Prior knowledge:
Blueprint: H1 2-20, E1 46-47, E2 54-55, E3 62-66, E4 69-74, E5 77-81, E6 89-91, H2 98-101, H3 126-130, H4 132-137, H5 171-180, H6 188-193, H7 197-202, H8 238-247, H9 263-271
Antiparallel strand pairs: 1-2, 2-3, 3-4, 4-5, 5-6
Amino acid sequence: MRHLLLTLPLLIGLTLPASAQVSVGIGIEMPGLSIGINLPTYPQLQRVPGYPVYYAPQASANYFFYDGVYWVFQGDDWYASSWYNGPWRRVGRDAVPLFVLRVPVRYYRQPPAYFRGWRDDAPPRWGDHWGRDWESTRPNWDRWDRRQAPAPAPLPTYQQKYPQSRYPQGDAQRDIRGQQYRYQAREPVVRQQFLPPVQRHQVSPAPRPAAPTPERARPEAPRERAPAAAPPQREPDRGRNDDKRGNQPDNKGNNKGNDKPDKNDRKDDKGGHGRP
Length: 276
């Protein structure tokens, strides 16, 4: 029992450093890492032709700039920072932006030994180096339509005013960046970890529009009354028309059609009552 108590702290001390080197999931680990990059002034950056990425040709490191953030590949890990001299944060392999991984081999100023034999005009063969498990999470990572590549982020040239002797630290970096750099990042890892709270709120998704009012809940518009129908017109009396044609009575009460004398009446007028 006594020996067990003595060896238990040793076991814990041996396991802690190993667990601290393990990348937990995807994303960014604890900030403030020193990776040996101490540039005296703001670096000279040039754009990688055809890519929305910049690189530092005069830096003795694999130093890039993409989506408003500096990216450094050192050892076998990726690091990122919102300022050119850090502090740096380790980024999980599954969270590194694809356009950073697609930068051709020739733009790595300090390529690792396993880059040898790879084409310098093609991106590093991350799938061969990191294994199929990594490549299965990011299939076709090296295939993209160059005509639809996004425009590069503007360079944070405001940092030229802060050489190593006047390099800001802590909250001063965040405040200066929030005042001087208005670019809105595209990558989720950049939006969540590197932007000040004000800019992080600006790139949040817009709220959904309110649902339309149901039809039955809408007030009905007043209905217009139909115009009143015209009164029906009376048809002309056929009997009256007949009277006008031939049977219209005169002022004496006789019909005009019966005014003609009979033949017998004519004879009576001429000769009396006729011959016996």
